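This section describes the prediction task in plain terms. A model, or a person checking by hand, is given the sequence of a single protein chain and must write out its three-dimensional structure as a string of tokens. No templates, partner chains or ligands are provided. The sample shown here is typical of the held-out split.
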Amino acid sequence: MLGISIYLSENIEEIKKYIDRSGKYGVKNIFTSMHITEENSQEFMNKIQEVSKYANERNMSLMIDISTNTLSKFNLTFSEMIEFYKNIGIKKLRIDFGFSEKEIYEISKYFEIILNASTIDEKYCNSLEKAGLNLNKITVCHNFYPRIETGISEEFLLEKNKLFKKKGFKVQAFIPGDEKLRGPMFEGLPTLEDHRNIPTFLAYIELMENYLVDEVLIGDVSAKEETFERIFDYYKNKRIELKLENVNIPTEEIEKHFWKEHKNRKDFSKYVVRSTSSRVEINTEIDPFNTIERKAGSITIDNKLYGRYNGEIQITMVNLKQDDRVNVLGKIKSEEVALLKYIKDDMKFVLKK
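The expected answer:
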């Protein structure tokens, strides 16, 4: 579903608050790293034990990114590293680089293994299996890219994920946050470059719907509570919340049904999202008003000139011409229009101011 990232250079109390906030919305996995250069080693060792304990008490777990640099950075032998993680209650390790297939197999005896997706090809898969690893029990996690213009393309992500699925891996990828971004670049931490400047909720849906991703991780320091609420609602209830602007609802009866939960038709259109219930529930004839051009994202209601379609609420997915039979009630915010294509057969949606 959804995971978060924490960075031990941040204030420990703020980290705990973020863990608590995200935990309310089903987050179980918490990514952090033990080989990035910014972290102070002794302070990090103290903090990671405290945070691991805090997360485990809330039925959440740290997923620690390690490499062979971790051993030298923290002055640990391979065996000492394993014992350290076991003692502080770590259950998942993301292996970045430097460890042999035999060492990864040894680590897998004690921890769930997550591999860096950028290191994996057909040859490496064969080597892992020869070393005794069961690929069906391994997750692969794509990188995030702090520098702008360095994130991977949609085509590359899908091509790699098809290979991973064929081999039996589960797949993770990153999206940027929308509250506090992580330095030193403060440019977002996405896997896909095209996700760098789009809403976090949209980036989540796109990864889950289009790219064979099993779990999405927010790469930045934090995301807004509203974003967690929308993602949780989408995941649990298969419902998309749409934010509106410039709404003008002329009658109480229309307003009564406008703010209810809607559902798109099973035989969905590529031009409009159609509420299945509104024209059945709205019984009075609706007079024509505001029958203007329908820009993409317009929320409309058919008036009495449309006969039996009177009362049907729609959202336009593309620009449509003016029609005397169709009243425009308002529009969804421009950054929300891209969500409409994910409201497919029987998908629920709600409209919010």
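For orientation: DSSP finds eleven helices and 15 strands in the chain.
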